[in-house]
Design brief:
Radius of gyration: 17 Å
Order of helices and strands: HHHHHHHH
Structural class: mainly alpha
Largest sheet: none
Helix content: over 70%
């Protein structure tokens, strides 16, 4: 299970907090929450805190790649906030492909 959680995170499927607590994998909890919230700073702090643990298990590379998910979720939140603030606006794809 220790090795499956990072793989599922990489696929964008986060485990539930109850599952992590049940199997005493609490160190993944802060990382999962950071990814879901798009909080890149807290993600990096949590990753740095458990870096040697992940390296020992051989999942450090996979965990570093999950940072892209946190960045993606941050971008989604920023775009949603901009859309709410400006009352809609153009879709970025419309601006590129507008004839």
């Amino acid at each position: 299970l220790i090795l499956l959680v990072p793989c599922r995170l990489r696929l964008g499927r986060a485990p539930r907090a109850r599952l992590l607590k049940e199997y005493k994998l609490d160190f993944y909890t802060s990382i999962v929450a950071s990814i879901q919230q798009g909080d890149v700073r807290n993600f990096q702090e949590a990753l740095d805190e458990f870096r040697w643990t992940f390296a020992r298990w051989g999942v450090l590379g996979v965990m570093e790649k999950t940072k892209l998910l946190a960045l993606r979720n941050l971008a989604v939140r920023i775009f949603a906030a901009k859309k709410k603030l400006l009352g809609g606006g153009l879709n970025p794809a419309d601006a590129v492909y507008k004839q």
